[in-house]
Amino acid sequence: MNQNRVRSRAAVAAAGLLVTALVSGCSGGAQAKPKDTAAASGSTIMTPAAKSEVDKITWNVFEGEPQTIDPFKSADYTPNMINANLCENLLLQTPDGQIKPNLASKVSTPDPLHWVYDLRSDVKFWDGAPMTADDVVFSLQHNLTDKTSLYNYLFGNVDSVAATGANQVTVTLKAPDYLINDEFASFAGVVVQKKFFEAHAADFGSPATGLMCTGPFKFDKWTQGQSISVTRNDTYWNQDLKPKTKKIDFTFVTDGAAITSGLLAGQIDGTFNVPTASVAQLKNSPAGTFSEGPASFNMTMVWADPQGAGSNAQVRKALQEAIDWNGVAKQTFAGTGQPIKLQTPSTVYGFAKTPLESLEKSLPDPASAKYDDAKKIVDGLPADVKAKKITMVVPDAAETQQFGLAIKDAAGRIGLNFELKVVPQTGYTNYLYDEKTRAGVDILYTQFWPNIPNPLDWLVTTAVSGGLFNQYNYNGVDDLYAKAVATADVDKRAQLVSDIETKLHDELLPMVPGIKLDSTVWMNKKITGAPAAFAYVYYPWAAHLGGAQ
Fold it and tell me: Is the pTM of this model over 0.70?
């Protein structure tokens, strides 16, 4: 996993993407599971269930066109938003944060080193071929052995994967790992057809080839620069998620104004991540419905250079206190977020909810715009430390530039030497994943979300050696994490997670507490059904879409 995760608002040639009339047509049926419900905070998990079938829906993918829809290389909004409806995982994570059986109908662990998956016998690929244990073994083995897979890092404790029955697969571990099973509700547990992949290994997930999976929608056509089209899988095995939409066109508009215009004009039927600048306008528009739901986002900054200015703990503390986190939440994100105390938002506390909530309550409110206190810290720094330049890189989207300017303003007010670099969104991912590209960069922007609603997943990705999003190469919690992931007792494991979060909070490494954002969705009056909760990266959310009448 990991993930540019930029809420894209950059002006690209959006008008050219909103080509010819993208108008949806309606006709008959619906999907109502999970039922409409609300989060404890009062925000919506599911929008009202669809009542009729729809011929076609145009849904915008706000981060732009993906490079691939290969699920092994999909770990960001754009490819996942599409892939979640095409390819399925052994387990399913639902919009309300549960993990349930899926392609695997039963999971058992006879001892700490083995996880056994009994597979459904009624699952077919889009070409009609049955899903077999060999397909599952091949898929898991691919994640295990292919270093280019974005989920490979999660398989560190996996020794082997083998078929142990006609419809059974067993994962054998090198050491106990009480995270790996839950990870199979992400693309760590995705299943593709072995035969198709091997025949198209060089271009699997490309515009010309597509892929072969088992989900509720089938890959149809990729018109580069314009859209990806998917069609309903009429032989889909899961009766609870039978789609009511016959065809979906995923468009790639990234400019906020163009997205808003397309929504109001009816050229786009719906979008997640409503453009912040248009929230008030779209909330009040009679043309559609705006909904807000719980999400697992931390919009924040990440220290990325262990030899840079951020290696000094006092520098990190001063800058953290000086940033106007309250102002960023209010102004940049139109009140759809709030500062958090820990790097992990409460929506990801999972099995560690009790100790993490207790820890959160014990901490002071997040520091925000405490310029005098922060300047005192900086004034006490050695001259060479104070003079050392802090370089931050952000992508050229409106929101990210505003955030970068807020960090620059804070640094300037307290006397730190700060440089802000704005780079094209299309190249920003290289700063996240390529050490050479980010050489000399101290701070990176991110809007981070985890694979699954499990705090161990967040930590292994962001704060443990080898984690895909640990650009700082931080190793301060490695021992605690290794102990936690191997601990069978849930309460003891949860307390270890709290100990890790305490250390990360105190050290402000490598990711700092930032702003917890809500998930937003807007649909025109013709359609309904999409989750308002953040569930569109590994869950077949589009199966819920349909007519509102």
Answer: yes
